[in-house]
Structure formats: structure tokens, C-alpha cells
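Morning F.,

Quick status update on the modeling queue. The single chain you submitted on Monday has been processed. Sequence for confirmation:
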Amino acid sequence: MDKAGGGKRIFAVFIVAVLVAAGIFWFMKEKKAGLPNRIVLYGNVDIRQVALAFQDTGRILRLTVDEGDRVRTGQLVAEMDPARYRAAVKQLEGEVAGQDAYLKELLSGSRPQEIEKARAEVRGWEARLKNAELSYRRAKELSKTRYVSRQKLDDAKAALDAAGAGLAAAKQVLSLAVEGPRKEDIARARADLEAKQAALSLARERLKDTRLYAPANGIIQDRILEPGSMASPQTPVFTLALTNPLWVRVYLPERELGRVREGMRAFVTTDSYPGKKYEGWIGFISSVAEFTPKPVETPELRTKLVYRCRVFVRDPAGELRQGMPVTVTIPLNPKNGPGAKSTSSSTR
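C-alpha cells below.
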């Protein structure tokens, strides 16, 4: 019996030793394998901001939104006094109309009445020339008998020359009327019209720019100027916090880098709404390592290298605020591979 009892005790000790060894092996294997099946990171909500400013200078006429208001893409948020810009548009509209009429006049050429008038002028000068020739001949004959003074003969010759010059000028006017304007004049008039039309388009755009619109959906964070203030491109009127996309900035430890890929699902939680999870996905992982920033809370030593990571978040109720500290949990299960991102990623 003693031998049998001793054998049982030895066998029991052997079994215990085997179980202890198996436990130690399993523990070491799990420790070496990478511990838990999730990664927990800490960061802050990061919202992009847009400074809304007019493209030109002027006095603010009215503001349609205030701090905290939600705005939609294309919504009117401010208006500048448009009086000067409307006057500029009207002035240029008149100049364009005048230049267009002048170009059409050149393209149409001379009117029949103008050509006929030029021909009548030629006929008139031809008659004057003929009469001047007769007067000169008569004075020349009479000068031989000294019945006409030398002065009258000179006057007749001058009248004859003047009539000839007048006829030549009238013929040139008739030729120009028949031929019409030069191609160079038409080209210059057309170029002037195009320049005035471009100036008019610019003036109309500047008139449109007196109305300031929201470029995207968001929340008015700061109202910097008030009605009556002078606006300029260098002075924003509002600061707009964009609500889409919304993301969280976290830092991934170097040892976890190989377990996380863009597109993986993630869940965001915050102390402000206990028990509520916000769906998200990994949208960006930096390719450059850096030291952990001081404001970031992490259980790891701050001297270790980390990789900046951006986690996109769905927040339809608008509960997350800029700078809010949050916790990001990334499940490491087979279903959460690089291609298994949340359906919300289609909203990017």
C-alpha cells in the first residue's frame, strides 16, 4: 500500500508540474504574442477652421448669423455695402454699349447718303475749278493789254490752285467713303470692346463678392466684425469650424504600428457622454515618427517614438467639440482588417 500511495503522489506531483509548465508556456506565449486584442489610444478632437473674409474692401452692411449658429454650404452670412460696385458696373455697361455701337458702325462701312454727299462735294469742286480756270484765262489775256492789274492775275491764279486742291481733297474723301474704314481701325475698335467687356465682367464679379457665403457646412465659432466695420481681405469676418469631416488626432506607439492600417474601424468615447460610442475609421497614419507631444495623455513613456494618426468620426448630433479629450479603441479582430472600415467612411 505504501508503494501504491507513493506512486500516486509522484503521479500527482508530475501532473501539477505539467500544468504549471503549460501555464508558464501559455503565459510567455501570450506575452510575446502582443497582449490584448485591441489598442486603446488617447487624443483630442481636431476640427478644421476657415477664416471667412470678403475679397475686397468696403463697409459691412449686415451680418445674418451669430456665434454658435450652424450654417450650410452656400448660405449668405454677411453683406457689404454694394453702392460703389453697382455704380462701377453701370459705368462700364455704358462704355461697352458705346464701343459696341462704334464697332458696328465701322463694320457697316459708309452709308449711301455719306457716299452721295462726298460725290456732291466732288462735283461742286469740279465746278469751282472750271470757273477758276475761265477766270484765270480771262485775266491772263487782259493782262497783256494791261487792262487787268498784275494783282488780279495773281488772285485768279491762287483761286485756280485752291480749286484744284479742293477737288483733290474731295476725291480723297469720296474714295475713303466708298472704301470704308481700314482693317486696322476695325481691329483696334474690336480690341477696345473686348477690354471694356473684360472690365465689365470683373466689375460684376466684384459686385457679387459684396455678399459673403459659407463655403461648407459648419458652425460659426467667432464673430469678429460687426455691421459698420470696414472689411478687407486681410480681416476675417467670421471663423467657421467645419463639421465634416470630423476627426480625432491620436498618436500610435511604434510597437503597435504593424497592427494598424488605414481603413480599420475604430470607436471613440468621451467622458462628456459616458457609455456612448462614436463610429469611426483610421483615415491617416503618418509615415514619419516623432516624439509624443506633451499634451497627449498616454500610458507609455513620453520619450518613445510615436506616429501621428487621424481617426475620422461620425457625429450626426454634433456633440463633439474642438479640443475635447477622447479615447479611441481599435478592435484587433479578423473582421477589422484594412478593408473593413465603417460604412461612414463613404461620407469623407
